Amino acid sequence: MSKAEILIIDDEPQIRKMLEITLQTNGYVPKSAVSAKQGLIMAANHPPELILLDLGLPDENGHIVLQKLRKWYTKPVIILSVQKNEEHVIKALDNGANDYLSKPFRTGELLARIRSALRDSIAEDGDTILNFQDLQIDLSARTLKKNNQFVKLTSTEYNLLSIFVRNEGKVLTHQYLLRAIWGPGYINQSQYLRVFIAQIRKKIEDDPNRPQYLLTESGVGYRFIRNE
Q1: How confident is the model at residue 33 (pLDDT cuts 50, 70, 90)?
Q2: What domains does the chain contain, in order, with CATH numbers?
């Protein structure tokens, strides 16, 4: 069973080191970012199962970072901050934080909050195996079958396809997809998207030139629908 990856966004070296050791010791896979910019890029390129976010970052206010994350990131975010007043707590929760811990905190309490947030996230995800007529996508195993035959996907292809199937029927804009897969710095690089959409269509569609699953919404983005 794979261990949950947790991204730490905090500029304090001692806090980061303590969190990394605590998480590793308890079976998690920690990743660290020292600034808002680095954290947003890491979260977008390889979305973790949970984010630990400090509000006092050197390059951008943590509340703004949280707002940016919540434009696309749906997994748990736990705030870790020296700011203890009620105003900051309420603001963070209103902006989409799942929980809030004031520094200094006890590691036992932090681990309990992490376990709770991850349990809630798994429950919200529901089924991990999704069937679409001749396609079967296993979100847990990160595999795709077409007509019961495994189809090889690159990591980027899988990440893009998984976003579509999790948002079945919804129009996803070019900027949303570029931000989610390649990061905030790539929202104007639509050629990236066109290339990978074409590659995915070759693997999931009977006729890539007449797609039945992955449809183009002209000038806006793409939509994944059931071919039934």
Answers
A1: very high
A2: 5-125 (3.40.50.2300), 129-224 (1.10.10.10)
7-11, 151-155, 187-191: least confident range: 187-191
Contact 117, 78 (CB under 8 A): yes
pTM of this prediction exceeds 0.70: no
And the tokens for 192?
């990236």
Question: Rounded CA gap, 9 and 97, in Å?
Answer: 14
